[in-house]
């Protein structure tokens, strides 16, 4: 880590003397620094509410040299969802800025440091277990696992690139989005002229690319046996790919570590990776159409309780078989159950009871 800082505002959660005048640990030989922040967290038991101190530790290590040389050591709504034969599978205008590359490491290796999404999830899961222990044992000791499960999901408050939009009961009866899970490819917060967009993950079309009689050579050959999915009501299609090994793919935009997306203008690069053996056709998922919103539209829909927001592990997006994990209801139920609490209860209720 080349640069770090901590910024705190005056509020009721930071305790007095939360920040020390110097780091709690400094190792000049390894350029290692540790920082501790003490905060308070509200605990409500029966009729009594009190604040319980919590210690947050952060550690950073300065990278030797530049980031490239040390990279190996560093840590819209619509009403129809049908497709038409005779197209390319990837058609229409490309979504804005769909030809960028990412450079974050793989999630496959358990020896690599957690990225910020995983770290946040670990904190959330530990807090949930900690709260359960506090209620049961009154001792405040965390006894849960200190590593992430293979699959995880938890609620978040604001949309971000790589998060999931999980349809609520208010969308029951809306054919296009009923019980859907949308992967938000871009949150639309970086460019004020661009709204958020993503693809529906759990609407398989039960067709392969070759069934669409694509005119594009790469789609008709390299990706002929790839399954097709309904991505949304807007007329521009794209694909999502997984890559746990390579730390950066030119021509694609990273959604989260291990997951990238591209469109028609990056098909040549995608085909090249398959021909070189870097990726397999099974690592790609092709979507006909996509879902998009105006700048404030998605936020208004979230505030109106049309969508739950969740962060999730990358393997949830590609995990399981084509017929199970990406079925209309299977992934929707799985995500809600992983989110826990009342979300888990909602996943088991019939549509009319939600």
UniProtKB/TrEMBL annotation:
Transmembrane segments: none annotated. Residues 60-110 are annotated as: Disordered. Residues 95-107 have a biased composition (Polar residues). Residues 61-80 have a biased composition (Low complexity). This is Transcriptional regulator. It comes from Handroanthus impetiginosus.
């Amino acid at each position: 880590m080349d640069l770090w800082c901590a910024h705190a505002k005056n509020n009721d959660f930071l305790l007095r003397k939360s920040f020390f005048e110097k780091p709690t640990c400094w190792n000049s030989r390894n350029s290692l620094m540790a920082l501790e922040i003490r905060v308070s967290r509200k605990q409500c038991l029966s009729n009594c509410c009190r604040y319980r101190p919590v210690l947050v530790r952060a550690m950073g290590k300065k990278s030797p040299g530049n980031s490239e040389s040390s990279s190996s050591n560093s840590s819209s709504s619509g009403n129809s969802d049908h497709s038409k034969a005779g197209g390319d599978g990837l058609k229409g205008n490309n979504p804005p800025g769909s030809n960028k590359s990412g450079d974050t490491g793989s999630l496959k290796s358990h020896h690599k440091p957690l990225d910020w999404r995983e770290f946040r999830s670990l904190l959330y899961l530990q807090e949930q277990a900690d709260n359960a222990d506090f209620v049961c044992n009154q001792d405040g000791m965390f006894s849960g696992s200190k590593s992430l499960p293979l699959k995880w999901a938890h609620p978040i408050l604001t949309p971000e690139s790589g998060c999931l939009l999980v349809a609520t009961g208010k969308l029951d009866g809306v054919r296009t989005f009923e019980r859907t899970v949308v992967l938000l490819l871009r949150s639309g917060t970086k460019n004020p002229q661009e709204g958020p967009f993503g693809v529906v993950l759990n609407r398989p079309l039960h067709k392969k690319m070759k069934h669409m009689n694509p005119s594009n050579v790469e789609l008709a050959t390299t990706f002929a046996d790839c399954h097709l999915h309904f991505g949304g009501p807007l007329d521009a299609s794209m694909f999502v790919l997984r890559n746990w090994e390579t730390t950066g793919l030119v021509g694609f935009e990273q959604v989260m570590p291990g997951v990238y997306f591209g469109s028609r203008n990056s098909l040549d690069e995608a085909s090249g990776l398959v021909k070189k053996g870097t990726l397999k056709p099974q690592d790609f998922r092709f979507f006909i159409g996509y879902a998009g919103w105006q700048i404030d539209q998605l936020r208004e829909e979230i505030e109106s309780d049309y969508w739950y927001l969740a962060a999730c592990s990358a393997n949830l997006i590609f995990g399981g078989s084509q017929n199970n994990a990406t079925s209309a209801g299977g992934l929707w139920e799985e995500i809600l159950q992983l989110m826990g609490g009342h979300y888990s209860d909602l996943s088991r209720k019939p549509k009319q009871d939600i």
